[in-house]
């Protein structure tokens, strides 16, 4: 009941997204509050939920491919779909919650992977780094990794998990601008 009232009271988001707004599932989206709540919230905010999909975005003469993988911990990620469907002829953006999915996709033609999940380690020590990392977030914890042909960006996000605090892992909201070199 409270959730329905909250949805009705929400103003339309002011995020300008000419190609639409995409969302993927994370492990907590399958958690105790349930998938239904997450789906309704994303729908109310104008997002399209994606899992295990590959599709094309086009604008004028520019084309990019978007690939999505469902949550590694709580669902059924389809690595084979990515290996089979992603074209090496197009710039490919992969959206997957857990960053270490990249370890399974080293040979796939992914140009940029965007992930979260780790909260940047959430609690870090100077000269040591994160003291606790999430499953599927041990190798890639925060920031930019990889080469020009296969980059992985791990966003620290805004929230916390387990403990409601952060130390040396500042919350972050990241904006990317993709430009064509054609």
Keywords:
10 strands; 182 residues; alpha/beta; two-stranded parallel ribbon; single chain; six-stranded mixed β-sheet
Describe this structure in words.
The longest helix is centred in the first third of the chain and has 10 residues, at 35-44. The chain is globular. It has helices at residues 2-9, 35-44, 79-85, and strands at 21-23, 47-49, 53-59, 62-68, 91-95, 112-115, 124-125, 129-130, 143-147, 150-154. The strands form three sheets. It has a six-stranded mixed beta sheet with strand order 3-4-5-6-10-9. Helix content is 14%, strand content 24%. Strand 4, helix 3 (79-85) and strand 5 (91-95) form a beta-alpha-beta unit. With 182 residues, the chain is an alpha/beta fold. The model has no long low-confidence stretch (mean pLDDT 88). The termini are far apart.
The count of strands amounts to 10
- Note the quaternary state here: single chain
Distance between the termini: 51 Å
Strand content: 15-25%
Which residues form runs of ≥5 with pLDDT under 50?
A: none
**Largest sheet: number of strands, sense, barrel closure:** 6 strands, mixed
The class by helix and strand makeup works out as alpha/beta
- The secondary-structure element order is HEHEEEHEEEEEE
Overall geometry:
globular
- The overall pLDDT average reads 88
Largest sheet, spatial ordering of strands: 3-4-5-6-10-9
What helical percentage do the residues reach? 10-25%
User: How large is the radius of gyration?
Assistant: 17 Å
Counting H and I runs of at least 4 residues, what is the number of helices? Answer: 3
